[in-house]
Amino acid sequence: MDKAISHKHAIATPAKAVVYRTPDERAAEGRAIRDSVSRPSQAGWKAPKHRRDPVEILGESNEGRLPSLIPIRFGRMAASPFAFYRGAAAVMAADLATTPTSGLRVQACGDAHLMNFGGFATPERNIIFDINDLDETLPAPYEWDLKRLAASVVIAAQHLELPYSDTVRITTDLVREYRERIHDYASMRALDVWYDRIDLQKYEDRSGDPDIVAAARKRMAHRIEVERRKTVPDHLYPKLVAEEGAQPKIKDEPPLIFHPTEEVAPGLQSGYEDAIAGYRESLPEHVRVLFDRFQLVDLAIKVVGVGSVGTMCGVGLFMASDNDPLFLQVKEAKASVLEPYAGASLYPNHGQRVIAGQRMMQTASDVFLGWTRGQNGRDFYIRQLRDMKMSVIIEDLDTDMLRQYARMCAHALARAHARSGDPAMIAGYIGSGQTFDDAITEFATEYSLQNRRDYREFIQAIREGRIQATMES
């Protein structure tokens, strides 16, 4: 492992005396790191001589997943190189661990690609833009998140068949946005960094074309209104629930929604009493008062995403009265893909790890965010099924829209890193010129070729029958 990947700049460490250093002094420390890890050294990608087989890594990542759902996971990954990239976080984590790092650690997302950002509602019912999937979160070098995000932009641009020149321009622009935002956060007061948020209804791209920004805001206003309607119980309840028996029941739509057996989900007979009690204890006391108004009525497995397919993900229907439902999403939390390379989590429960990371990185988190452990020893975190959660549809983007969306993601990532890391040291290291921008862009461009090679190997393994994949219609 690279010596720079140490716990020297680890976060979430036990409390200790802090020696005050000015932002300028911390920035100077960041600049000094360039002597041992230059910014140009971050550029490019060359596979190590003994690089592990990506298909083998993906196979290992299936450990503990429901066997019947693994072919669906691989089928979704087989759809395109971009879909493969979304499901191959473990492959890239192994690769990133071989690259030079500054040693500057943050609470990392661990899977910072374009589709893991989006809009959602705060408890105050404002709509913000932020990282919205933190299953892999763990303290780690900040570059890992930025490199994964930048590579996802290149791969998305290739998926859209954009010209190479546009792809490079969009990716460079993303890195520049991250750099400039980090410099902004480095000069802000700590509380102002913590309170900063990206309000979707007021967002303005400071360097975007006014006409493009205006059109984007108009589309966003329409999308927000659509999601408001989708989120209300009167819309969601009839889509997911049937009222044919004595009590409401979630509709089965196998293989994507189905009711588990006692073998698959121990605790079924008791109504998951112990797991719910554990979840309740993880909630703040004032939220427990609200949660106690609801009672579990039904729970079903619900397949979601790409990388999460096969893990124990479900949806629970809770009712406070006949016309007062609450849908909670239950997601299994396994060890982060970064753990073999960045160190083990400090938390005894991986659901707790995910939630601690969310609360550190997100401006606002779901009021029902909590964690628990099942009778089978699996760790889970829980949140509302959807609370105006909005994700981009990559196929709908053109060059200008992808550029603006990528900049929003870079802004959100910089804000998240500034909350947990030292933005002055990061800003000092990356500097104010284009050296760092060009290096990360070069890495992202070359790594997209590695992703395409890995995708071809993956497809070949499917054709040869070494792995099974189910293509969905």
What does this structure look like?
α6 (142-159) packs across α17 (435-463) and α7 packs across α17 (435-463). 44% of the residues lie in helices and 13% in strands. The strands form four sheets. It has a six-stranded antiparallel sheet. The chain has a two-stranded antiparallel sheet with strand order 1-4. The model is unreliable at 1-10 (pLDDT under 50). It is globular. The two termini are 43 Å apart. By secondary structure, the chain is of the alpha+beta class. The chain has 17 helices and twelve strands. It folds into two domains: 23-226 and 395-463, no CATH class; 233-384, no CATH class.
Largest sheet composition: 6 strands, antiparallel
Write down the overall geometry: globular
Q: Can you give the helix content as a percent range?
A: 40-55%
Question: What order do the SSEs take from the amino end to the carboxyl end, as H and E?
Answer: HHHHHEEEEHHHHHEEEHHEEEHHEEHHH
Q: Tell me the strand order in the biggest sheet.
A: 7-8-9-10-12-11
